[in-house]
Amino acid sequence: MKERLTETEAYLLGNMPEPERLLFEAKMLADPALQEAVQHQRRAFQMIRWYGRDLQRERLSAIYDALDEEFHLTITSIFK
Fold first, then answer.
1. Would you write out the chain's pLDDT as a tens digit for each of its 80 residues?
2. DSSP character at residue 79
3. What angle do CA 11, 12, 17 make, to 5 degrees?
4. What one-character-per-residue DSSP string does 2-70 give?
């Protein structure tokens, strides 16, 4: 099971040499369960990327809000 997961991960991340990749693709054609496992893993990777993007967006928004508030205070203090 772990070997299959590692192999699927290498395939999806493009870390598999071409001969191994072609063999893996042939295995997928012959094994619908493997095709399904690859699709599930692909979806999991996609969800992880989306979560990472959302997390990064939240971090950037917090930085922007802090900088915007600091800028506002600086400008306000100049014109007092």
1. 788 889 999 999 999 999 999 999 999 999 999 999 999 999 998 998 888 888 888 888 888 878 777 777 777 788 77
2. T
3. 30
4. HHHHHHHHHHHTT-S-HHHHHHHHHHHHH-HHHHHHHHHHHHHHHHHHHHHHHHHHHHHHHHHHHHHHH
Give the Cα separation of 70 and 36 in Å (integer): 51
Alpha-carbon span 28 to 22, nearest angstrom: 10
Domain count, the chain: 1
Q: How many residues in total does the chain contain?
A: 80
Q: Please say whether the beta carbons of 37 and 54 come within 8 A.
A: no
Host domain of residue 7: 2-78
> Which residue type does 55 have?
L
